[in-house]
Write a structure and sequence with these properties.
Elements lengths: L6 E4 L5 H8 L17 H9 L11 E3 L7 H7 L3 E3 L21 H19 L3 E9 L11 H9 L6 E9 L6 E5 L8
């Protein structure tokens, strides 16, 4: 029997992947990392391995809403959450959570529901395809994103999730993209 995902789930990087999944009408619900700027593969891995505990460790958060120097940026682009050890709180455009202010109860509730949803998917072995893309034009961290390395990180989750992974890295100086697909999980007979 062929493996086919019931859910296509964006893990960033930034909004590019989430927007593409939505435009293709493949998005069933929002992803916790859909618009996240995880910058390097180990940040994604850390989020997944910790069951997103970084989102709820509030003593390690910095919020752009409380930075007077970011008032104009907040008005133009929205408030952001910076996560200690992932971000430089003085660099507005590099926040891990560029569209989410976790100091707000409504946003925090959205993230808690997202984690419950992923737990359900994991517990019930629902077929899920993790998708990420890195756009070289806007993401200076793209050199760290070796698609095979990220797929290896996600393979750790094959025992937890019934998943596969696909990655796309677009490049400026060529007319092609690098794509990597991890093998789908084997179904037991």
């Amino acid at each position: 029997m062929k493996w086919f995902p019931k859910i296509i789930y964006s893990v960033g990087i930034r909004c590019t992947t989430e927007i593409a999944i939505s435009q293709a009408q493949l998005k069933k619900f929002s992803s916790l990392l859909g618009s996240a700027n995880m910058k390097i593969p180990s940040n994604i891995n850390s989020m997944l391995l910790s069951n997103f505990n970084h989102f709820f460790n509030f003593k390690n958060h910095y919020y752009s809403r409380y930075n007077k120097d970011m008032k104009n940026l907040n008005s133009k682009y929205g408030h952001r959450t910076f996560i200690d050890n992932f971000d430089d709180p003085s660099n507005y455009h590099e926040a891990s959570l560029p569209h989410h202010d976790l100091s707000q109860a409504e946003i925090l509730g959205h993230f808690r529901r997202g984690i419950k949803r992923l737990e359900y998917i994991k517990m019930n072995k629902v077929e899920i395809l993790f998708v990420y893309s890195v756009n070289e034009i806007e993401d200076r961290y793209r050199d760290a994103f070796n698609v095979r390395k990220i797929n290896e990180l996600f393979c750790e989750f094959h025992n937890q999730f019934n998943c596969s992974t696909i990655g796309l890295i677009s490049t400026i100086n060529s007319n092609h993209a690098t794509i990597a697909l991890s093998p789908p999980p084997l179904k037991s007979a």
